[in-house]
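User: Second chain of the day. Same drill as before.
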Amino acid sequence: MIVELRGLEVFGYHGVEEGERRDGQTFLFDVSLWPAGEPTSDDIAETLDYRAVAACVREVSDHAPVQLLETLAAAVADELLASFRPERVRVRVRKPNVQLDPPVEYSAVTVERP
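Assistant: Same format as last time:
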C-alpha cells in the first residue's frame, strides 16, 4: 500500500535568487509514503492521514527558507520519516515558475529515503 499526495501546493520563500526568497513562489510537492502496515479496520487512526501529511509538508516549508530544492526535499522527507514512521518515503519538489533561458515547464528534485 502507498499513500500519495500529488501536486500539493505550498507557497514558500525558497530559491537561490534574492527575489525568490523575498517575494516567494508556489512549490508543488508529490509525496509517497509506504506505511509500515495496512489498516485492519476502517479507522483513520490505523493509516497515514493525508491531512496530517499535507500539514507536515507545509510546516517544513514554512520553517526556514532554503536556497536549494534538494535541501527542501530532503528536509520534508526526513520530517515525514520522523513523524509518521513509514517504511519508505519519496518526495518530489517542483518549481513551476523557474526562469530559465530557454524556458522550461518546471524544475524538480526527488529524494527517496528507505
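Residues 60 and 79 are 8 Å apart (CA to CA).

User: Great, on to the next one.
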